[in-house]
């Protein structure tokens, strides 16, 4: 089953399913490949008849990432090409609730913490820094430095409070401790730029990386001399990797080769390849609300040229 939403003159960069509303997704988009022009934030609902626009907002620069609040079903944060973060509320039709601008270059990644006992946002920028914020986007709480290239991805650990991973153009995956404002681990994960990383939902020691070298690597943070799994198959750079919320060893990747691939990293085996798009695929997310393990797992991809959001069901591959 495929449901499609198209939006002309926008390039999609990120998509995320609401943690509260199973049918709702948010998309961060830009004009002209994010090089010039404005950005648009889209909120979409999946209906029986298709995918419909709930609300949209314009921003003066491209929007590159999106993350829903884990405590308020109406609130989202985005990162933009002008170095700013924006806090949005679906009940506010006109403008963001708040704007914070401390980064000096593009904000390419934002993520809202998922562990109990904390409520924080992390941002990663082309200025080579990661910043941690309170949910009101007041002045940043801390700035973390160490990467020697642009930061493309920052992801909170779903297990360890105050801990996040980052992926960079310097080819390293780093793990950070917010309390001490220090890098706890630096892994030379690829010999090329790393565009994405994600944390396994079932194991605090397992992190995946996706690189310009066309491979997905899965790392055990207790022994980083070599990856526990290397997954070749894509023919162009991997833009995003995501672990399944329902299966420990299932993950998905999307690529500039126009495809989405599913993997079981425990057996180094590809499960399926989806080639519904006709251009770069930049965004990917699993729906958190589907309770039936790996079978019929709902995911969403967003296309980076004329925006095409496609909602698909993965058949049983296990």
UniProtKB/TrEMBL annotation:
Where does this polypeptide localize?
Cytoplasm, Cytosol; Peroxisome matrix
What stretches of residues are WD repeats? 100-143, 144-186, 187-229, 231-273
One annotated GO molecular function: peroxisome matrix targeting signal-2 binding
Task: Provide the primary localization.
Answer: cytoplasm
Top-level taxonomic group:
Eukaryota
Q: Kindly give the Pfam families that the UniProt entry links to this protein.
A: WD40 (PF00400)
**Cross-referenced SMART domains, in alphabetical order?**
WD40 (SM00320)
GO biological process annotations for this chain's record? protein import into peroxisome matrix
List, alphabetically, the Gene3D superfamilies matched.
Answer: YVTN repeat-like/Quinoprotein amine dehydrogenase
Family the UniProt entry places it in: Belongs to the WD repeat peroxin-7 family.
UniProt protein name: Peroxin-7
The organism of origin for this protein: Sparus aurata
């Amino acid at each position: 089953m495929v449901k499609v939403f198209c939006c002309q003159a926008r390039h999609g960069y990120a998509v995320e399913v609401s943690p509260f509303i199973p049918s709702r997704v948010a998309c961060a988009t830009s004009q002209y490949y994010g090089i010039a022009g404005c950005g648009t934030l889209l909120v979409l609902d999946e209906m029986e008849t298709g995918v419909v626009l709930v609300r949209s907002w314009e921003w003066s620069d491209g929007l590159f990432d999106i993350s829903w609040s884990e405590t308020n079903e109406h609130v989202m944060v985005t990162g933009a090409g002008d170095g700013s973060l924006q806090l949005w509320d679906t009940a506010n039709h006109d403008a963001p609730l708040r704007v914070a601008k401390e980064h000096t270059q593009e904000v390419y990644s934002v993520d809202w913490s998922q562990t109990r006992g904390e409520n924080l946002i992390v941002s990663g920028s082309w200025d080579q820094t990661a910043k941690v914020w309170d949910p009101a986007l007041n002045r940043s709480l801390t700035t973390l430095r160490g990467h020697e290239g642009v930061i493309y991805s920052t992801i909170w650990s779903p297990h360890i409070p105050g801990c996040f991973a980052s992926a960079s153009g310097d080819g390293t995956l780093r793990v950070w401790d917010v309390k001490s404002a220090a890098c706890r681990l630096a892994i030379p994960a690829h010999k090329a730029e790393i565009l994405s990383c994600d944390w396994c939902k079932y194991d605090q020691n397992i992190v995946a990386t996706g690189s310009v070298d066309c491979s997905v690597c899965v790392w055990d943070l207790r022994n980083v001399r070599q990856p526990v799994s290397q997954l070749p198959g894509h023919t162009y750079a991997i833009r995003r990797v995501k672990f399944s919320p329902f299966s420990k060893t299932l993950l998905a990747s999307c690529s500039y080769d126009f495809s989405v691939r599913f993997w079981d990293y425990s057996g180094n085996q590809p499960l399926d390849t989806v080639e519904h798009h006709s251009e770069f695929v930049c965004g990917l997310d699993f729906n958190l609300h589907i309770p039936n393990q790996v079978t019929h797992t709902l995911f969403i991809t967003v296309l980076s040229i004329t925006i095409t959001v496609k909602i698909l069901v993965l058949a049983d591959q296990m």
